[in-house]
Amino acid sequence: MAAMGTANKTSTVIDAPEIPLAAALRPKALDEVIGQDAVLAPGAALHEMIAARHLSSLIFWGPPGCGKTTLAWLLADACGYRFEAISAVFSGVADLRKVFERARENKNLNARTLLFVDEIHRFNRAQQDAFLPYVENGTVTLVGATTENPSFELNGALLSRCQVIVLGRLTEDDLLKLLARAENFLGKTLQIADDARRWLVQQADGDGRYLLNMAEVLFHQNLTAPLNIEQLQKLLQKRAPLYDKAQEGHYNLISALHKAVRGSDVNAALYWLARMLAGGEDSGFIARRLVRMANEDIGMADPQAVVQALAAWDAFDRLGSPEGDLSLAQAVIYLATAPKSVAGYKAFGAAKRAADETGSLMPPPHAMNAPTKLMKNLGYSDGYVYDPDTPEGFSGLNYFPPGMQRQEFYAPIERGFEREVKKRLEYWEKLRAAR
Length: 435
Description:
Layout lengths: L20 H4 L12 H4 L4 H8 L5 E4 L6 H12 L2 E6 L5 H16 L4 E6 L6 H5 L2 H5 L4 E6 L3 H4 L2 H4 L3 E4 L5 H15 L7 H11 L3 H12 L9 H7 L12 H15 L3 H13 L4 H16 L5 H16 L5 H13 L5 H16 L14 H5 L40 H17 L1
Parallel strand pairs: 1-4, 1-5, 2-3, 3-4
Helix pairs in contact: 10-12, 11-12, 14-15, 14-16, 15-18, 16-17, 16-18, 17-18
């Protein structure tokens, strides 16, 4: 560990450490790791591996700055493995060959090798396959680190040979402990007010490395009085939220928004909408999903839901962001507070299954037009009754194919507008039975 910086008595600026603060504070033992108690606690997989001093190949999946690299290095040290590290961003096949050759030499000397691969998801499929024989024959114990969902980004063959360890983002309490550790290491308290300290931690968004980098900037300022939030915001650029529109975050957040709307949790729905917009999500994608929610989860319980969703989409296209954001928010509020029904969704699904099963049955004659003399002679349109001309406005004719038993696909619920629809269907069924 680098020597502790000391304050200059003639200046309020401290001496900079020889290496970045985040590197200087990297834990040197497993009991110094902050925020990953769940995977290191007794009974957890890593704890048992450490106790046995034998590691399985692992994939560390977690957000930036949660300690993936540090944990791999500490595991190697605790279990007596030689540590090799490469980055998939900067390494190629030639680099892998060199690592595997050194690992073979270690094996011949009865020494085990832990190969840490940072950003392993950036290797293509063929490069990932290159690890398989060396993992299988024990030349290396692989520990890969990724911020992306391994299910989507890693080969099934490689994934089947590794145990996935999910590392969580650091909590605010974890980050406050890390900040206190930095202050203790440097022998200096950050000159920021308590509410500004909380703001600083929130901006780190669970990333310990990012927090220490921001803290290092502050430690080197000539601060004569504690900064408040406004002053801190001017000094430090606000961090963009972690959100990848093409990866798992995209699917997780739209799922959360959809399920919050379906669950009539209007406040949570607005939160997830705000998160997606802050992350730069395509507004057209959000608008399309709102229309889908209106049809799939609300349907005839409130037929105006799809009208509201389409109006919001149109308003956003006309106004753009940020003015148009409110139109999407209004649609989310409407959909989340609307009565829910999947009766139409289920009815159409049942109708599609019946259509698949019955093939190419023809409609009954009265359901077909007869624009030509031949078609009239063949009986097209025979027996048709124009419903509006009947006293009840309902003829009761059967429009299913001849020989096919009538089926009830649509079962409206006793909620919202569908309550009225159900009354109509029951009335028409009563008339149909009377005929």
